[in-house]
Amino acid sequence: MVVAFKGATLIDGTGKAPVKDALVMIDENLVTYAGPSGIKEVPEKAEIININGKTIIPGLIDAHIHLDMHGMADTFEENLVEDKLRTVRAAREMHKTLLAGITTVRNCGSVNYIDIAVKEAIAAGWCEGPRILASGKIISMTAAGNEYFLGMYREADGCDEVRKAAREQLKVGADFLKLMATGAYMNPGGVPGASQLNRDEMAVVVEEAAKLGLRVAAHAHGKQGIIDAIEAGVATIEHGTFLDDDVIELMIKRDIFLVPTYIVGYLMKENGEENGVPEFMLEKSRKTEKVWQENLRRAIDAGVLVAFGTDAGTNYNYHGNNALELVILVEEGFMTPLQAISSGTKVSAEALGLSSEIGTLEENKIADLVVVGGSLENKLRPLLDNVDMVYQGGKRVR
Ligand SMILES: [Zn+2]
Question: How many Å lie between the centroid of ligand 1 and the Cα of residue 153?
């Protein structure tokens, strides 16, 4: 049965100017039309939904979350919740995420394969949530601070061990692989600028994923680590803090996606030590805040493909609040609202290798869409506090 959404402003995700008084039609799970009204006829039996004064956009795609983490002030305390309970909680968090208009997520590392379990439960219809791409455990070299996230890292050193680690994730059903190219802010003793897995080790991970047509995401802050990851063949650079003009050039040349997860630092700073964020995280974050902002601005202005990722689950970074990343990128002048919406839809779909199916409201795409009260032309706050309807695969879920 055809559902016709009439009268809203359409922002289709492609980056094209918004269309006023638009018509969007879906039939079963697919979009059959999205554009100006008066061009395509609405079938007589269609269900008509009048949404004058509202805005309709594609379902958002968060390319970087951790579904089994809960936004605790000190991430170490996540370890104190037992895995089975965490799994149930994660399923609930994913429902919240879906209700917020996030119809697809890429989970960049979970404890003891909780991500795979939740993905399968949603796919089986036991609970509702976004479409999930799961990595399983994060492949890391033996490194200081990994114990801060018990069960989230698969430590491996040398090409043979790394190959085994990659195959283990694929065996349990990973949809992509995640690796550590450099140290991390959130691991005590982790040095964000320092390289971790070397180029050959990362190339092995890419090789194993590629056998199944799958991609690799690299956690990478330091310049050399970013370059090594790109040369090894990864598809996305997570965070990218110390990228410079050389890296920008390389990323553009190779169509590499940057997933900045800007709000991680923003929320840590906003909440601070007084609210229990560990001092070692704040200290590292303070030291590089300015550089990071400048580099991100430069990358966006130069035309690096920037996907939407939140690192939801980290300190005060709650599931369902994902759109805050886009809101803040706009409010701090990194992107225009239209750019941010494309980043959160089309560009993220491309980063995940799903752009033939999702990411824009165009004919024959999967009918994932969000109706928001009010306008998104000047600010994106309504994505946080005024989501009206959510459709996923043509089915109304909110
Ligand atoms: Zn992360």
Answer: 12
